[in-house]
Amino acid sequence: MTDATDRAPLLEVRGLRFARQDEPIFGPLDFAVHAGEVVLVEGDNGSGKTTLLRVLTGVAHADAGHSLLHGEPLSHERAAGEIVFLGHQLGLKADLSALENLRVAEGLYGRRHGVSAASALASVGLAGYEHEAVRRLSAGQKKRTALARLLLLPAALWLLDEPYANLDREGIALVNRLLERHTEAGGAALVTTHGAVTYLHREPRRIELRA
Amino acid sequence: MRPGSVGAACWAVLRRDLLLAWRRRGDVALPILYALIVTTLFPFALGTEAALLSRIAAGVVLVTVLLAMLLSLDALFRSDVEDGSLEQLLLAPQPLAPLLAMKILAHWLTTALPLVVIGPWLAVMLRLPQAVVPTLYLALLVATPLISLFGAVLVALTANTRRSGMLLALMLLPLMVPVVIFAAGAVAAAQQGLPWIAPIAWLCAVLALALVLAPPACAVALRIALDA
Amino acid sequence: MNTLTLWFHKLGSPPTFYRFATVLRPWLLALALLLAALGLYGGLVLAPPDYQQGDAYRIIFIHVPSAWMSLSVYACMAVAAFVALVWRMKLAEVIAMECAAIGAAFTFITLVTGSLWGKPMWGTWWTWDARLTSELVLLFVYLAIIGLYRAFEDPRRGARAASFLVLIGVVNLPIVHYSVVWWNTLHQGATIKLVGDTTMPMSMLWPLLVMAVAMEFYFGASLLNRARTSLLSLERGKQWVREMATADG
What is the DSSP string of B131-160? Predict the structure, then answer.
């Protein structure tokens, strides 16, 4: 495995600062994420992890500093299609089935070569649940559906907000497996966690978020 | 890797929203029932004298349809904001404007089109002369998309606030005054046997503009409202 | 960067604006009061009674300048809203939002004075005259802007959303006015002529113009005052506010 850090970074953050109504939330932050890397962002509740991800997806504006995607300033146009975001709210419509939800995502983003919505669901252990309405799935199953979206969509950078939440040991192992495969294929991931212990194939880089 | 085309993305969004409305198809009846009930209140309030009712019929139906749409517009983005789907839409590689246009179209098809269909019959219940019904159909057909398009932009602005239907009413209704004036003016002219095509044509022109300008404005409004 | 841009940037900094506003405010208010006294004297005392309406017409010296102000404030608000949205400038956001309240007040005064005029003139408290009706819609738009701003917990996000609404209004208010005029010709026949501006004698015109200028100065003073206070409240966590508070106290 080549050293990831000698390639140009996928995502770079310089002097990023965020404040809400003059209360500093985080910053100044400086870090880079290279292809093949997993970076863990750790911090307590309220330390701004979700806000950081929202800034990196281009939805929110930072108060100072800038972020670069593939070396170019990150804006919502640049971020579109290059980034897959998994948030607290999973982005699934409760009235649709898991398969239907993935089909929508596929229509919007396209899909990875060799992966279909059905196969993605099977890979996350939801074979047989494709046609269940999402509202009838358990919290863990809903999370898996959202994870299946990660498999399906062709994007190099994953921004995952607490992906381990609501998952049992098998689910946690699944997330780690997904991250491993993604980084081996040249992708990168930024993962937030509030300190829950995670075991990955390689020890990831950790960043502590503090105001 | 094959990125989704704009057409595929639009179809995905349209299909999704239509499917969601179908899954809750009971809700389609609500705006219709509202319009029916409100329209029937007017004879109770004003008496059943035919001459009076026939003069106000078209106007009452237009305002009632406007209010019914106001109530249903509130829900245009709410569920998407709550379950995080809207953020997924924002991140899609497609421009946001056509995707929002599809959402607005789905919303119009499922909430306004039923009102357009039954509206003139409500007016007939209020003694609107049947000869004028085609004009009222046309007026509703042109006015309701305008209300949807405009309303979508304004609802987008309130996407992340503690929502109050009153606020949306305050924002939308004053700006809908021209739509009401021209739609009602057309029907009133038809009722008097005067030429009525001019106000309709005017509305069509504004609709053409709105079809082009409202989806991008809606996209901008959403981004402003969701920006932390 | 030339001097104008530099001055603009400096003015946009909250502490600089605060000092600028504090200094300028009393002068503008003094000018406003002076000109208002002059205008009112000219309008109420010097100008002759109208041959048709007698003395009752004199309310136009408040009504007409108020109406002009309701539009002029909107124009100022629109410029500030545009700057706020494009450059995300905090001061522009504050100015735009404070303009809304002042504009609403002028619009309300226009409507009330119009109504007071209507009673002796046409025997009714409200008339569906095209201009008054458009003013009423304008009042609703102002209130909507204020309401939208208040609906947000984050005042900066609220100001940006409300600014977008301001710009939507810029496009739509002329359309509303035009449609109301059209509607009025359908329903009222001969439009009630308020006062024909072109045939107004000079003795009536100059107090009107003086009152308009007086109101502009008052608007300036009021805006600076409100923006100043609002800025202080919004920036209360910042260093310069704390320094100022401890320096005074």
Answer: GGHHHHHHHHHHHHHHHHHHHHHHHHHTTT
B36-43 long-range contacts, CB within 8 A, separation 24+:
B36/B118, B36/B122, B38/B64, B38/B67, B38/B68, B39/B64, B39/B122, B39/B125, B39/B126, B40/B125, B42/B126, B43/B126
Distance from CA of A190 to the nearest CA of B (A): 16
Q: B203: helix, coil or strand?
A: helix
* Euclidean distance between CA atoms C138 and C74, whole angstroms: 9
Peptide bond into A204 cis (omega under 30): no
Distance from the Cα of A98 to chain C's closest Cα (Å) equals 34
pTM confidence score: 0.89
3-class DSSP assignment, residue A32: strand
Cβ-defined contact of A94 to B23 (cutoff 8 Å): no
The least confident of A174-188, B150-164, C64-78, C190-204 is C190-204
H/E run at residue C92: helix C90-122
Q: Which residues of C touch B161 (CB under 8 A)?
A: 151-152
Whether the pLDDT of residue B105 is over 60: the answer is yes
DSSP letter assigned to residue A71: T
- Alpha-helix runs per DSSP H in chain A: 49-56, 76-79, 98-109, 117-123, 139-152, 169-184
Structure tokens at C86: 């494009």
**Average pLDDT for A138-162:** 90
Question: How many Cβ pairs closer than 8 A exist between chain A and C?
Answer: 13
Q: What is the pLDDT of residue A5?
A: 52
- Minimal CA separation from C154 to chain A, in Å: 7
Phi, psi of A34, deg, nearest 5 = -100, 165
Report ipTM for this prediction: 0.90
Q: What are phi and psi of C221, to 5 degrees?
A: -60, -45
Q: Do A108 and B19 touch (CB under 8 A)?
A: no
